[in-house]
Amino acid sequence: MRTLIVLLVMLMPLSALAQSADELYQKALKSIENDQYKEAIELLNKVVESKPKDKEVYNKRGFARNQLGNFYGAIGDYNIALEIDSTYADALLNRGEAKFNLGDDYGALEDYDKAIKYEPKSAQAYTSRAFAKYNLEDLEGAYFDFSKAIEMDPNDADKYFNRGVIKAELEEYISAIDDYNKALSLDDSDPDIYNYRAVAKFNIDQVEEAMKDYNKAIEMDTTDPIKYENRALAKSTLEDYEGALADYDKSIELFDEDPDTYNLRGVVKYNLENHEGAIEDYSKAIELDPYNPVYYDNRALSKVAIQDYKGAIRDYSYSIELFPTDPETFHQRGLAKISKGDKYDGCLDLNTAVELGSEDAKDSIKEHCK
User: Fold this and answer.
1) How many CA atoms lie less than 13 Å away from 311 in the CB half-sphere?
2) Which positions make up the signal peptide (predicted)?
3) What is the DSSP letter of 369?
4) What is the domain partition of the chain in residue ranges?
């Protein structure tokens, strides 16, 4: 009897310890559900002490670390889980996510491939692999994976939206619109879907329809400069230059460090014959990005419009230094030189433009270089 009592005394702490670890693990899961990741990690640290061979514990701790941006720590946990079970698909998927977050798309792709091998019906694995393939510019592969994910989970608006983005990049705009329509039928609360659908419509010359979507997107989200810039481009196409100007103004108000927005606003001001304002915008674009020849070309056009031929020639020359094989820049610099009174050098530029393939320059030679 004494021996039995001793055994019971010895076993009770072990039983209590196991129960305590299970309780701590459940508390950790609840903390993860509530986005309390630091608390979850502290609890899981204690669980690991009593369950050093439990792959689930390491996987969950890795997840919590990943959510806190500790990607290397997360990978360490996933590695331990996979040492315990190399076929553990969830840990492979999660390790892929951590590698993806570190910018290691190739490494992430390897893990996603293995996750799919061991769990071929995981919609999340296909979705994650699609993003990695997209980053690696494998658009066809991303298209396939998003399609597989949709087969497994056909009621997720995000999957249709993401596949629509891929289709649009592949210039399959009509099919992209179909995906955006499906996404909106599942969830019409995302202004980005309206914005992207508008871009697709714009690219198939449905500009008026695109405008409706841009208006809806901006009505839902007034803080995104890209949406205003996109609508401005549509307004410019419709020759509503004043409306386009207002949208570019708003876009720049929200984000004043994008050189292309200044350039596009400069084009609108050029069309409104506000050449001084256009030059100011082109100059700002050049200040932000001094290596884009288009900005110099555009500023030169406005300088020609106000008969600042010397300034225009200087800008065309900068452009040629950056892109020495553009026939139109030689053509326009030649015309600026002729307007300035330098016919000989101007005609040399026109001849260079012809050699580079400009048909328009041939007509200019006939007119100015007899």
Assistant:
1) 14
2) 1-18
3) -
4) 330-370
